[in-house]
Amino acid sequence: MLRDSLNDFKVTSAFNYASRTATANGNNIIDMRGFGACTFVVQLATVTTADSSNYFTLRLEHGDDSGLTDGATVTAATGLLGSNLVINDSTTQSNMRGLMGYVGGKRYVRMVATETGTASAAFSADCIQHMSATQPTGDQAFA
Questions:
Q1: SS3 77
Q2: How far apart are CA 143 and CA 138, in angstroms?
């Protein structure tokens, strides 16, 4: 089968767009079966009330249970590519993007936003799964 980029990856929402003021788990747990890696793309909109004392830390959790009851924080030693993302400056981070990668060996992964202080930021995140074992990966139409 011809390998091409459209049929070699899958995109899933990790965080639906919203203005957040509290710690939250991503809205989807990503099933990595059939994929060797994924990249999380975070899109910031308006960042307000975020500074060195009031901020969000975006990190990844992974595990083998579909509900991530066994969820553990992903580190460089367990498959994190890049680093955790911190949303902490309202003037320079509005309307910017950040990336985090995962190449760990667990079946499920999700993004978690942990608030410190009283931060406020509007953002969304998508998970792009790649290095698929089979093609095509499925219909990429609106779903």
A1: helix
A2: 11
